[in-house]
Amino acid sequence: MRRKLGKNDWILLGALAAVCLVLFVIFRFLSGSQGDRVVITLDGETYGTYSLAEDQEIPVEQNGSITNVVCISDGKVHMEEADCPDHLCIRQGEISSEYASIVCLPNRVVVEVISEDEAELDGMSG
Hints:
The protein is α+β, with helices and mostly antiparallel strands.
């Protein structure tokens, strides 16, 4: 015996869809502001800080060889190349929001997006 959806069932489904849409918008657009700087950390030490506005490729060297290549283009950053076995850092895709990061655990490389204000505060406290 199959029962047809009644008026109240459709109202409930519509309300659930509306709640899901509102939550999606909140998390998508309010989760983090656009960052301005990219900080690359190697083995817990700052390797370099770069502008997110300037397109460039940054080779990350360890022990005389390039282990990772970080690419900044169109206001976004991604891991272009890595010599790690799983390449999960490459599959993490592009980031541009403040506090977003890409991690290459085998090579101990972290790429993080920060805002200009945060960079100034870090410089003042150090």
